[in-house]
Structure formats: C-alpha cells, structure tokens
Input
Amino acid sequence: FPVYAISSPVSLHIVAYVGAFSALVAAMIACTQTDIKRVLAYSTMSQIGYMMFALGVSGYGNEAGLGYTASMFHLFTHAFFKSLLFLCAGAIIHFIHSNDMRDMGGLRKLMPLTHIAFLIGCLAIAGIPPFSGFFSKEEILLAAYNSNMFVYIIALFTAALTAFYMFRLYFSIFWNKQAALPHGDHHGEGSFSMNLPLVILAVLAVVTGFVPFGQFVSSDGSPLAAHFNLMFSIAPVGLALLAILIAANLYKKENNKPAKMASAFGGLYNAAVRKFYIDELYLFITKKVLFNLVGRPAAWFDKHIVDGFVNGTANVTATTSHMIKSVQSGKVQSYAIYFFGGVIALAALFIYYWN
Output
C-alpha cells in the first residue's frame, strides 16, 4: 500500500474501481448460486473486493488513511464470521449429505446450534449492528463516501446485495420447507469437536467489532480513532434490512416467487447463473488462443528446433566418434605405422621449410 500511495494517484484509482467492480459482480453471482459453499466462496470474493476498494480510496496518514484501516479491520472481522459460515456449511453438508440448498429447508429445529451460529454470521456479514461486520463495513463506506461518490454508491448497492444473498441462503436452509432427511436412522447435529468452534466463532463474530482497531493498525502507524455516525449508518443499515425482508418474502416459505423474479430479470439472471461466462472466457483464452496460437508453435519449436539441435549435436558426436575410434585399436603394428608415418610427414615438412 505505501508503494501505491506514494506513486501516481491513478494506481490507487485503478485499485478502487477494480475492487468495487469485483465486489459487485461476485455479489450478483452469489445471488444466483445454489451450492452453499459456492455462495460463500463468491461472497468471499465480494468481500475481498470491498477490502481492495477501501485501499483504493484511502490516502496515507491520519484521517486520510481511514480506508486503509477500514480495509484491514474488515479483513479482521471477516475472518471470524466467514469462517463461522463455512464451518456451519460443513456441519449442514455433514447432516444433510448435499451441498445444494434446494435439498435443504426446515433445519432450524433439527440443527438449533448451527441455526443460531449461521444466523449470527449472516447478520455480521450483512452489516447489522451490533455484529462485527457492521463496524468494519461502516468504516469502509465512510472512507468511500469521503473520497469517491461513485464507488460509494456501488459499495452501498453491493452491501444490500450481500444482505439479500446471505439471507436467501439462510431462509433456504433453515426455513422454506419441511426438512427431508436422506434416511431414517440419522446422526445428530454434530459432535462436540464440531460444535465448539461454532460457538467460539459465533461469539467472536459478535464482539470483534468493538475492538479499537485503529489504535493498532493504521496507514502510517499513528493511532486512528473509530468513526461512528448514526445518521450516516441509516442508509446502509436500512438497505440491508430491506434486502433481508425481500429475501424473507421470497425464500422463507416455499413458493414460485423466486422463479418469477428470475424470469423477470431474464438475460441478466442467466448470465449471473453462468458466472457472467468468466469460466468460458478463461477456457476460450487458454484452449483456443494460448494453446493453439502460443502453445502449439512453442511445442513445435521446442521439439524440432531445440530438441533437433541437441539431438543433431549428439548425432554428429556419435558419427565422428565412430569414424575416429579405429585410431585407438589396441594394435601395436597400427600404432607403429602411425608413428613412422608422422615422422616421415614431419621430416618432409622440415626439409621443405629448410630449403
């Protein structure tokens, strides 16, 4: 960060816009996925985008470095509530034997501890006070608001999407419909070794937002006071609550509203389901462009030119060796002939130059 901060401002602007774009696109993809680990994975990508654009809108030193501190603060709080969510997902998959949230529903009564832990993680990542994500996300939004209004608007919309897709996941897993267990003789919610980390991380997801993070981490090493403005928090918290209500309306009970909404968004929804064809783009670039236009010519050059030169050198050496190996035959008579022949040649040369 110091290298970017002391260089051209353009470099940090690029970081800010790439981070904001990444956060938004990953959040849109997460809204359409049905594999619970994939939803959380794209959520992580989105939150990393948050951290990156916070760095991009930050200055260096004092209040100007709020974005830097906010980014590191969100990295800190995100570690707890996202690991909590992933561990909950593991417990759910272990219980239901499926990654697909369409195979789930009504698990709140069967998995009460996981239910509460997952709800805490969702509230934290959605930025609902007093959970940890609220404090770090508010710092990021304030830094963006003070530096780049366009990035702030993207961040605000992305925050609402975050609340929506996380509670879409929450209601689909723990509400929505009656639980359908894969077999009758089913194991319990989880062992002590599985549940204890959930409890620890759930507590940390609640309390870590109250850590005076700016006193320990800042862009220039000087303590930075925490920022809390009730009026500023109305918009992000209000949008997050609205997104949660929309998710509850769509997914708390089984209905055809999600299908209608997906149909209404048409091409945008289909593109998001396909992850905006990023995988296809990667495959096209690698298989069609790099492999065919770079890899194949490079392989031909390596096989025919590089290997050909090395093999040719070896063949020349072998042929020359075959031709001259008779010089060392082990026969004394041959050596004597070579010796006297050399003497005669030297004598003739000496006589020639002597005359």
Q: What stands out?
A: DSSP finds 13 helices and no strands in the chain.
